[in-house]
Design goal:
The protein is mainly alpha-helical. Helix content is 71%, strand content 2%. It has a two-stranded antiparallel sheet. The longest helix is centred in the middle third of the chain and has 30 residues.
């Protein structure tokens, strides 16, 4: 089986990232009126980072060494994003009496704290992150985002080890 070329795979990943963000904002936020929690925002940042890395890789189309650098960057973003998806799934699995307290709204967070303090709070998550707001086939939203990160990581590994 012949794999699509390096540029096509990166372009597909960039488009997939864009589609995930459109679904998150247009459907979940605007249609279903679901408010993203801190960890949701963090996961979105990693999806966007993967999309940007893959779009640049598709446009740049470097030789094999450069391809491996882009692949390694996208793999690292997928692993980091997967960590935060897993963290949110863990929060969702906690008994109600062990769920941390809910935090302040994201807008207030960035207005009232320094950027480094706000980012640290986002990465920690809070009780809002433990609420299951949506499910499909028994899997909550961070579960599906984790599936996406696994897919991005698998494609990145394929891109890293492929021959030029």
């Amino acid at each position: 089986m012949k794999l699509p070329n390096y540029r096509i795979v990166n372009l597909a990943q960039a488009i997939a990232s864009l589609m995930l963000m459109i679904i998150a904002v247009a459907y979940f936020e605007n249609s279903l009126k679901l408010e993203p929690c801190y960890l949701c925002m963090t996961q979105r940042a990693f999806v966007v980072a993967i999309g940007i890395i893959c779009a640049i890789a598709a446009l740049h189309n470097p030789p094999q060494f450069g391809q491996r650098i882009y692949a390694a960057l996208s793999i690292s973003m997928a692993i980091a994003g997967g960590y935060f998806s897993g963290k949110q799934l863990w929060l969702q699995s906690l008994p109600e009496d062990q769920v941390p307290a809910c935090g302040i709204p994201v807008e207030y967070l960035f207005d009232s704290f320094s950027l480094s303090e706000a980012i640290a709070m986002l990465l920690r998550g809070d009780g809002n992150c433990a609420e299951v707001q949506w499910q499909l086939m028994g899997l909550s939203m961070p579960g599906w985002v984790l599936v996406s990160f696994i897919g991005f990581a698998a494609l990145g590994v394929m891109q890293f080890f492929r021959k030029a």
